[in-house]
Every structure is written in structure tokens, then in C-alpha cells.
Design brief:
With 145 residues, the chain is an alpha/beta fold. The chain has 7 helices and 5 strands. It has one domain: 3-Layer(aba) Sandwich (Rossmann fold). α5 packs across α6.
Length: 145
């Protein structure tokens, strides 16, 4: 089994069929549920996922109860949550990657651990794909053999 760094944009798609590429996100989730991959995420991932679910409720894609259930389900996932770098190091990472501090945490974690980083954030992917070969676009996920 190998680990993947997955961002919150993918996690929200697991539960929201209105999201573009939800089918691809669910391939990753299926590989996780079948024990073919594990997840490695920055410690703030739970909060970012909660924010995405809140947006889905606000858009009418989830009821209030479905939102609460989604949070419960996602928090129960056995993703390995990694501590965040210090504020000074986070700033330096953001400058190095030329991305937000939040996006830089994912990039740093994947680079540090040698894992692929999967994202559904096309703006992020397009900005770094040529300089960071471990960054993957969700649409290209084919599942584990």
C-alpha cells in the first residue's frame, strides 16, 4: 500500500455528487476503502474539508443534517494528519512555491514524503505541474491496479 497526499477539494467530492469529477474522486476513495492506498494530509485538512461542506450546504447541495453527517464521516477517516510547519517556515514555503500558505503545506508534505499529491484545484495544478512532477490532476486518476 502506498500513501497519497489528497487535498480537501477531493474529499468534498467524495460526498457531493454535484461536484465536477466526483466520479474520479470516488475512485481514490474506493482505493482507500479497499486498502490499496492510505492518505497523508496536513493537520488543517479537517478544517478545510469542513469549510467545503459548509459551502455545499449553503449552495443547497446538502441539507443541514447531510452536512453534519458528511463531517462525521470524513473525520472518521484514518488519514495520517501531519503537523504544520512553523509560521516562519510556512511563509518560506509559500515564497518558494509561489502559492498560498495553505497550498504550500500540501506541496511540502508530498515533496517531503515522496508521495504523489492529488488535487482537484485546477488553478493550483496548472501553476505547479511543470516544476513539481509529483503533483497530479484528479481527472487523470485511474485507480490502483
Amino acid at each position: 500500500m502506498h500513501s497519497l497526499v489528497v487535498d480537501a477539494s477531493i474529499a468534498v467530492k467524495w460526498l457531493n455528487p454535484y461536484e465536477i469529477l466526483a466520479d474520479k474522486a470516488n475512485l481514490i476513495r474506493n482505493d482507500y476503502e479497499q486498502g490499496r492506498v492510505s492518505f497523508l494530509v496536513p493537520a488543517f485538512w479537517d478544517y478545510e474539508v469542513a469549510n467545503g461542506i459548509n459551502k455545499a450546504v449553503a449552495r443547497g447541495h446538502f441539507s443541514e443534517q447531510e452536512g453534519r453527517d458528511a463531517i462525521t464521516l470524513l473525520l472518521a477517516m484514518r488519514a495520517q494528519r501531519e503537523a504544520l510547519p512553523s509560521p516562519q517556515e510556512s511563509y518560506e514555503l509559500a515564497r518558494r512555491y509561489q502559492r498560498s500558505v495553505y497550498d504550500s503545506w500540501y506541496l511540502y508534505l508530498a515533496e517531503k514524503t515522496g508521495c504523489e499529491f492529488w488535487t482537484a484545484d485546477q488553478k493550483l495544478y496548472n501553476a505547479v505541474k511543470d516544476m513539481l512532477p509529483f503533483v497530479r490532476w484528479l481527472e487523470n486518476y485511474q485507480g490502483c491496479p
